[in-house]
Write a structure and sequence with these properties.
Length: 650
């Protein structure tokens, strides 16, 4: 070989072939400057399936077809450094198959010559040789190693057999490849596999192959294998094992590595079925959610009831002995035991809410709350949310779920005060709840059922509103199942002494003013006043007198009384302008009031229509309704039957 390298390129033709022929691996002698193959050995010919003569003297670049740039760079590296190595080249066998190469190259000849010797090795054959060598090595040493490890597991199994059979937890062992080495009876019972069916099988593929939802659980992510890969104990509180019958169950387990001479050779896994615990946790969670829901509902009810208790009600029970009050009490006694809807009508301040509370407390729903909704105080955009509730994100500002008043009143009574103020476009949804007792929260598709009794109240004439298309007729009939009229105070003046005394005692206690009493003159003054604000106004007057009283009461109703009661009682002196034909504001209001009453009497209590009071007065029904409300007149109290109307016309 040394002789070959010292000859010039021109003298190497025969000697080079001799030396190249002796090489055991495919070899190629190339003149890089002339791009000529000087010699090649039979091994290269066999590698490519060609004869040496067909390649000797041919171009090296043509031999490495399509790899010219890499060949130039490889040649320059060899000539510059004296040697080079590469796995980037390949040649084509005569049958068309590509031969991947591993090439070692070195300079040959003198330094000023450009001759290279290339040793070409088949990469696939090299890989096969290395694998065969490794296999032989493992085979020689592995038999003893595997036998030793097997004996280790056998000894461990014998020593711990009693313990394995006694414990209630499932226990099994795996070797370094994850194959089962032993399985205790508890594991057999839980998994449904016999020990002999699992021995030697990769346990992960048998019972740990997928998650609870069925998604694939790759073996390289299994925590059990992690234990003997890094030699650490792995504790998993929640996982899923699959039984032989295809069913699964939740488990918790601990995987402990088995060490031998400082190296992990397997693991022991202890697991237990936690199905009952999971079921108990789910039941507990469900119970907690129900408790939380009830707690939230009770908090809302409590806040509502606290609000109701702190509000200033007129009185806690119906006070009076007039025929009107007795009639109301009788009607309350009739309707309270039923679940019928009630419509309470009457002027403002007459105690419509008191009637609703009396109906609720006398009925079977008294153990559940009476939920009050002031329809006149709810913004139009929030009616639906206030009545039916909403879910989080249903609209801007809905940061949490909210229970509506209907759901809050489930099992109890819902009092809709000022029901005539509900927008016409929302009355249909209210009608549906009254008919079907079903609703959906805003932003939710879930239909909820409730059991709610509805009591509605209004100071408007809903029949007029129906005629003017401001109130749905079907909703009116649904609410007006059992009507009750709250009589104005001026029509039951005999109740004023009792009411005044009740309010006086309450106000004295509230404002710490003892010793005040009502005189006959006080009662007479109160009974002669018109009371457009009804019972609410009477209570306010009493409270104001208690606050300002200096040892005795002095009801100054001048300017409040359209009849001028105070002026008649105070002095007999003629007024300064007694002869002037000028009427005071109070007199004008009295005239208008009397004129409206006469019109209603003539029309039999009808407001609209050809024979209605509005037509008699020459004004619109809506204008008349507004004036009646302002004057505190209830048109319904003037209604007459057809027979009465005919008798009056005669």
């Amino acid at each position: 070989m040394t002789e070959l390298l010292t000859h010039s390129a021109s003298d190497t033709s025969s000697s080079a072939r001799h030396w190249v022929d002796q090489l055991p691996e495919p070899a190629l002698l190339v003149d890089a400057e002339q791009d000529v193959i000087l010699a090649l050995n039979p091994a290269l010919g066999r590698l490519l399936g060609v004869s040496r003569g067909s390649l000797t003297g041919s171009s090296c670049t043509r031999l490495f077809r399509g790899q010219g740039p890499m060949l130039i760079a490889f040649t320059e590296e060899t000539l510059y450094r004296g040697s080079a190595w590469s796995r980037d080249f390949s040649l084509t066998h005569r049958d068309g198959q590509t031969v991947e190469l591993e090439i070692s190259a070195s300079r040959a000849g003198e330094p000023d010559e450009h001759v290279m010797l290339l040793l070409l090795r088949d990469s696939n054959r090299l890989r096969v040789r290395r694998e065969r060598h490794d296999a032989n090595h493992c085979h020689r040493g592995g038999l003893l190693e595997w036998r030793r490890i097997e004996e280790l597991f056998k000894d461990m199994e014998r020593e711990n057999q009693l313990i394995l059979h006694a414990v209630g937890e499932g226990i099994y062992g795996v070797d370094a490849e994850g194959r089962a080495t032993f399985v205790n009876p508890a594991a057999e019972r839980m998994l449904g596999w016999r020990s002999d069916e699992l021995m030697g099988r990769v346990v992960h593929r048998v019972m740990h192959h997928s998650h609870e939802d069925g998604s694939l659980f790759p073996l390289n992510q299994c925590p059990i294998y992690e234990a003997f890969r890094n030699g650490s104990v792995m504790r998993v509180d929640e996982d899923w094992f699959w039984r032989k019958d295809g069913s699964g169950f939740p488990v918790e387990y601990t995987s402990t590595p088995i060490m031998d001479n400082g190296h992990p050779v397997g693991a022991v896994l202890v697991f237990r079925d936690v199905s009952q615990r999971h079921q108990a946790q789910k039941q507990l969670q469900k119970a907690l959610e129900e408790v939380e829901s009830l707690k939230h509902k009770l908090e809302i009810e409590n806040a509502y009831l606290q609000e109701e208790l702190s509000a200033e009600y007129h009185f806690h029970e119906i006070v009076g002995q007039s025929d009107a009050i007795k009639a109301i009490v009788r009607r309350i006694g009739l309707v309270a035991p039923t679940d019928a809807n009630v419509l309470v009508t009457g002027e403002s301040g007459t105690g419509k809410e008191l009637i609703a509370r009396a109906i609720h407390h006398a009925g079977s729903r008294q153990e559940r709350p009476l939920i009050r909704v002031n329809c006149a105080a709810i913004p139009k955009d929030l009616f639906e949310s206030e009545f039916f509730g909403h879910v989080k994100g249903a609209f801007t500002g809905a940061i949490n779920d909210r229970i509506g008043r209907f759901e809050l009143a489930d099992g109890g009574t819902l009092f809709l005060d000022e029901v005539g103020e509900i927008p016409i476009e929302l009355q249909g949804k209210l009608l549906r709840v009254l008919q079907d007792q079903e609703f959906e929260r805003v932003g939710e598709n879930l239909t909820r059922r409730v059991d709610v009794r509805v009591i509605a109240a209004t100071n408007l004439d809903l029949q007029v509103a129906v005629a003017e298309k401001l109130f749905r007729e079907d909703l009116y009939f649904r609410l007006n199942v059992f009507p009750i009229e709250s009589v104005p105070l001026r029509q039951r003046t005999e109740d004023i002494p009792m009411l005044a005394q009740e309010f006086l005692q309450r106000a004295c206690t509230r404002f710490n003013r003892p010793g005040l009493t009502l005189t006959n003159r006080d009662v007479e003054q109160l009974q002669h006043y018109h009371w457009p604000g009804n019972v609410r106004e009477l209570e306010n007057v009493i409270e104001r007198q208690v606050i300002t009283a200096n040892g005795r009461l002095d009801f100054d109703l001048v300017g409040r009384d359209t009849a001028g009661t105070k002026q008649a009682l105070a002095s007999d002196a003629p007024p300064r302008h007694s002869g002037a034909q000028v009427k005071t504001l109070q007199e004008m209001q009295k005239l208008e009031h009397d004129n409206l009453v006469r019109a209603l009497v003539a029309a039999g209590g009808r407001v609209s229509g050809q024979d209605g009071a509005a037509a008699l007065l020459g004004i619109k029904p809506t204008t008349l309704a507004s004036r009646l409300k302002k004057s505190g007149i209830n048109a319904a109290s003037f209604k007459t039957t057809d027979a009465e109307a005919e008798s009056r016309s005669r």
